Each structure stands twice: as structure tokens, then as C-alpha cells.
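Entry for flavin-adenine dinucleotide complex. Fields follow.
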Amino acid sequence: MALARSLLLAAAGSNTLNTMATRSRVVRRATRAFMPGEAAEDALEAAAALAGDGRALLLTRLGEALEELDEADAVRDHYLGLLDQVAERGMPVEISVKPTQLGLERSESRCLEHTLALAAHAEAVGSVLWIDMEDSSWVDPTLDLYETVKAAHPETGLALQSYLRRTPDDLERLAPLSPVIRLVKGAYAEPPDVAFPAKAETDRAYEELAIRMLELVRDAAGKGGVRAPRAVFGTHDLPLVERIEARGRAMGLGPEAWEVHMLYGIRAGEQARLQSRGIQVGTLISYGEAWYRWYMRRLAERPANVWFVAKSVFG
Ligand SMILES: Cc1cc2nc3c(=O)[nH]c(=O)nc-3n(C[C@H](O)[C@H](O)[C@H](O)COP(=O)(O)OP(=O)(O)OC[C@H]3O[C@@H](n4cnc5c(N)ncnc54)[C@H](O)[C@@H]3O)c2cc1C
């Protein structure tokens, strides 16, 4: 299983495979299980279809590394337009953006400008900006970015990854800010000195970090006038969610005190079931033409998906 994951993550980095896959109509069709289409309109329609049960919806446009810094302006404009569309439709949609798509790799100051612009517009239309966490080389500048944007726009959220050995320290660094955190396990190929090589260690770290996030929510609840942190668990690991729920209850926190976010097309039935039993669910819908690397990471998370894709392609 670990070998399959490594091979799929290595394939995610291949430019040749990227070109072959994105040109193939058959492979594009197979991606429909995880993304409703390449256009923002496809994602908005899928969001509208899911919105009926009261869940939160999040949209993200998949992107490649930028070749020119000016491309980041276009990414910002795209999301500004998307927020306008969301506001026009009156849908409870939040957006999730990768800092490198906003130019982090080329200019931290331009990336900050764009992120502030998106957070401000999200706030103005009643939405929320989430900042994704990318590979470990971006964690330091992303934390700096988050701290600045959060000070100006307190609803802004950040993803933290439990597979990174450093994340408990990062969470403590953010704790005084009443952080809005989406905890995920982590999706990139990382060296063992940086990230836990064994999945069991990542899972254990996730649970410990989740408990710490619940403690932050509980402690803020006791202090009137303090903005509550937002604890979001970005995972499809249902036994883990059950354990988090039990730990929350033991601390006096019901399911309304935290949220679960999952990806479109994964455990769809469970997403509806959790929402119907009072857990606030959010579904993150991806769209865009640059889906290859993202899609390979989804396959690497569950190599059995390769079989599922093969069936949808060949039969
Ligand atoms: C809302 C959201 C936002 C995310 N944002 C980021 C981010 O900013 N940075 C980052 O590095 N990663 C991000 N991820 C990805 C994350 O890091 C994991 O790679 C991914 O969620 C799989 O881990 P898991 O927690 O679901 O647990 P796992 O233990 O991997 O999976 C638990 C179970 O869920 C099911 N499952 C999981 N993945 C799949 C799949 N692809 N297909 C079918 N079934 C599956 C399987 O049944 C599996 O047994 C995000 C994930 C979510 C849900």
C-alpha cells in the first residue's frame, strides 16, 4: 500500500503523464467521480444540488505552479468573480485557495496583497477565505501570511497537516489568535524527518491535534466576549470523527461546536448522514483544468481508487 502511494505520488510529479492524462477524454471522464467539471459553473451547480440539507460548501480551483507573477492577478480576479457569483446566488459557499496560486513562490508581498483582497471580499459578501497548506517548504511563509490576514479578517481559515512533525508547535503558535483551523492529514510526499512515514503515526497525531483544537474551543466558550476559534476536521476517517465526537462530549462540547469537511464525491452518503444527525458538514468541490496532480493525490490516498477508476474507464 505504501509502495502504491509512493508510485502514485511520483506519477503526480510527471509532466509527461500530466500531458497524456489531461488530453485523454477517457481519463477526464473518470475524474468526474471527484470533480463535477472543469468550469466554475459546474462546481456552482454541484454546490446548489448539495446545499439543500444545510451543509457548508467550499469551492477551490485547481492550479499549477505559476510561470509568471502576473498569473496570480488572474487567479485573484477569478476568485473575486466567483465570490460575486456566490453572493448573487445567495449560497453558503466558502472558498479555499493555495498561496502559491496567489504568487507566494514569486513574491510574498504580492501574495499577501492578493490574499488580503480575497479575505476582504469574502468578508464583504458573507463568505470565508480558507488558505490551503501545500508541501512543507511553504509552511513558514504560509503561517506568516495567515497571521497577517487573520488579524485583518478574523474569519479567515488555515489548513494544518497532522503528518508534519512540527504541527503541534504551529498550532500553539496560532492558539492565541482564536484560529480558524481545518485539520487534515496531509497529501504530499514528504521526507521522514519532516513528516511521519507511518500512517498510524499521522492518525495518532491527528487525534491529539484534534483534541487540542477542541480544548481551544472549550476554553474560549468559557470567556465571554472572546471570539471563538473554529475547529474543522477535514477527514473522511469516520472512526476518527467518532472518537473526536466522544472526546468533545467528554469536554462538554456537542457536535455543534466543531465541523467536518470532506471532498466532493468521497463518502457522499456519509456526508449526508453526518449532516442529518447534527454535525455541521462541509463539502469541498474542486474544479479547473489543472486537475492531474490533484487527482493523482486523491488516488494515492486510496490506491483502491485506481481499480475504481479502471472500472469506470473500461467498463
Ligand atoms: C476539506 C479538505 C481539505 C483538504 N485540504 C488539504 C490541504 O490544504 N493540504 C493538504 O495537504 N491536504 C488537504 N486535504 C487532503 C488530506 O490531507 C488527506 O490527504 C485526505 O483527506 C485523505 O485523508 P483522510 O483524512 O480522509 O484519511 P485516510 O485515513 O486517508 O482515509 C480514511 C478513509 O476515507 C476514505 N478515503 C480517503 N481518501 C479517499 C479517496 N481519495 N477516495 C476514496 N475514499 C477515500 C477511505 O475509505 C479511507 O479508508 C484536504 C482534505 C479535505 C477533506
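NOTE: Strands lie at 56-61, 93-97, 129-131, 157-161, 180-184, 230-234, 259-263, 280-287.
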